[in-house]
Amino acid sequence: MNRRTALKAVIAAVFAGSLASLAIGAAHAADPIRIGAVAPKTGPLAAGAAVTHWPNIQLWAHQVNEQGGLKMKDGTRRKVEIIEYDDRTNPGETIKAVQRLATQDKVDFILAPYGTGLNLAAAPIFAKYGYPQITSTSITDKTAELTKRYPSIFFTLGTTTALANSVAGILVKLHNEGKIGNKVAMVNVADAFGIELAESARPIFKDAGLEIVFDKSYPLGTQDLSPIVKGAKAANPDAFVAWSYPPDTFGLTAQAKIEGLDTKAFYTAVATAFPVYLAKFGKSVNGVLGAGGVNPDTPAMKAYYAAHKKVTGKDADYWASPVMYATLQVLGQAIEAVGTDRKAVTDYIKNATFKTVMGPWKFTNQSIHDFWTVGQWQNGTFYGVASTGLSGAKPVITKTGW
Amino acid sequence: MDILITGVLLGATYSLIAMGLTLQYGVARIMNLANGEMLVAGAFGAFWVFTTQKLSPFTSVAFVAPGAFVLNWLIYRFLLRPLVRRAKNRGMLEVDSILATFGMAFAFVGIMLLVFGGEYFTYSYLDEPVAIFGSPFGLNRVVACLVSVALCGLLYLGLNATRTGMALRAVAVDPAAAGLVAIDVPRMSTFAFALGGAVTAVGGIVLSTFLTMDASIGIVFTMKALIIVIMGGVGDVRGAIIASLILGLAETAVASLIDPGLTLAAAYLLFLLVLLFRPEGLFGRRQS
Amino acid sequence: MTRRETVSVAMVAVALAILACLPFLVDGYLLSLAVGIAMYTVLATSWALFSGPTHYISLATAAFYGLGAYVVAAGVDVIPYAVLLGLAGIAGGVVAALVGLATLRLSGVYFVIFTLGLAELVRQIVTWVQNNLTGSRGMYVLTEITERMIFWELLALAAAVYLIGWLVTRSRLGFALRIIGNDEVVAAHVGINSAASKLALFVISGTFAGTVGAVMAPRFTYIEPSIAFSPELSFQVVIMALLGGVHRLWGPLVGVIPFTILWEVIAGRFPTQTVLLLGIAFLLIVYLIPNGVVGRIESAIKLAGRSVKHG
Question: What pTM, to 2 d.p., does this model score?
Fold first, then answer.
């Protein structure tokens, strides 16, 4: 056999072997509770998932198993086993992977995917097989319609309208206190979430008496944002609001620093709450507003950040990270209360109150209605400064230059 | 004036993205879809040097450039040369190299994911304003522009004033004829491919000072580079530089004067128009 | 129709009928897999209809596909879905016609990169329009369409692709295209309008890609530009078709099926190193199966034939 035929034989064998395993499917293990996880490890959303999604799964599974497992009704303890798939940020793959977990791997539970689009793509599958889908990174204004359609989906991070409302609220408050004028420069990334936020914000800002003096979009993946920032600066605004995605959140901030766009209110959306934002810009981020926020001073939250760092070696972000962790706590507590019957778990989640790192959580209409909407960097921590009914918000400060 | 300077700075950024591919595609005839991954790998090197060794990211050139050169040498020698040999004509080589380098791009993303993890990596270096004609510009972008000018100048000189350069240009024009005049075509192609990889990785170092990257972002750069190379004319360094500048200026002008939302649309439109009216690219030679 | 042709048409019809029963037998994961295979089969086969004879490699599939998906997302609340499917096909066809008119005189790599640029241009324009003119609050496609129905729609499209492909090879158009593929100069000399022939096929493949985008949109529920216009899709279609072989109508199919299954196996077994292994598997395929699966099969048949003769 020459080298080439040998190689071919090996490949053929691997191929055939894998096909066989594909057909048989994994065996049903009795003891640990098997939990599937589908999210991007590659593709456009992978970097975000690497901050917010995957480390929390690692942390939660580690903590649960360290204690010996989840404490079931009958007093036994069951560990959790996580089965991960990479959906390559492709909704077709997400659908397939969730199907695979449900019908081939026959896992006990499946964690909600990452991001709005991927979660909604998978929602019909979760609903079809009766898996609870407790989303932590989906923001949509269609919660009412979606929860009616999919009886086992849960929303926790908020709505686009609420995010826009809170930003308007903060700007109006600063304006009324005489700290800033009412001229707002608004920019948005021309991609799903950015377009939706800008669209919601326009009427809200207007009704709140704010004047939008600059309103432009830029394409996703723009490599030089200086014309945008220059344009915004030329409009001489009192506040700068960017409905931005991670790479451009960094780019806009860097450019604003360079151009000297030092409005007293400066807001960038997604990724402002990422630890790498602080690491990149250091002290100059003081006073920057962004989407999300937490109340990091509660003992639960302090313990969470410490454990996150210790177990995963990374800092958690100040928005969706603890929310994601809280959804895992919800799932864990529900399983401890009623076992692994998915119908019972779903019903339990709909009705019970949970003790989470975010404080007590009680779902109404399958959604959490109290969530953080705006946070602000103050002395190296990203504090929640506005929410829809949570306590512990810090007062907003004005930004004093870079 | 602002538009002009910003446009030139952006154009310099683009030329850093495209310069390596010009060599790889123009001389070695490999349409390398894994080019962007090389750029990201270079950027990772800079990030690592800056965050863990607390050195200037530019010091990473010391190991990134030779590393990328050797790696690309090996890739061409062992993975691509068999394709060049088995290809009966240029069309077949194009198809094969698209397929092979597409696979490589995937493999590289996987390797980078294993080695560096999946997060964003971004840092601040020279992130301060410098005034040019009274307007502030990012110092890192200005430095990038200078590096780009130096790199392009070196390449241009190297290609036009040295024997190796002349041989490279000959291969770019016609590999078969170059072989007839005692040029070692396979060797020159390997050299061009390796050099192109090294140039791309160095570009990545410079870009990492102001762009946010992650393991999966390479494809973005590959596509940009392909467009610039084709627009400039295959195998012509001047063409790629001019195309980069045109794109940079056009995008900035559209962003400043019309609507920033249309910058990329304008860039692609411009590219398509160039191709329509000058299919061989700005500096390309009409194929007989 | 010769007897052999009658037999093969009948066989294809029977195969399609059997496949149409598939959703009653399998469900869930295997059905998703089948949807994936059906989608890529339609896309790759219609792509090869154009690229096989002309040797033009088009990376514009994502442009037509994304356009189709957006047509559905924009109109799903006001226009009946069936009409939208038609509109999406027309949109794909019209854009393909415009592009074709302008570009088919480009050759080789220029055409490749042009179509790549085109896909990005269409994406940019669509998002800009969505952002500035429509006042949309996110593109939701909430329908009652199930995966089963999507599979049947795709199967119907596949049948249509094969029918058209078969008719084309039998027609003057197919003959003309084969000559163009061999030598465009010769084709021009014998009075073939090569531009029109190429254009016709490009429009066909654009129409199919647009329709497939519209068929898939309800499956994704929420349409994002970066996903609908993903360049990866264009590349994947090209690769599957080339792996199978573009000179036979059934070529892409034998590329799509093993490719999808192999990727699935890798994704399932090595979830943490999926991309790395996909890349390596891919390289191995390229190096070991240089002429596509069709080439392998045909040389195997030839070999078998020879050994029979000798035996």
Answer: 0.87
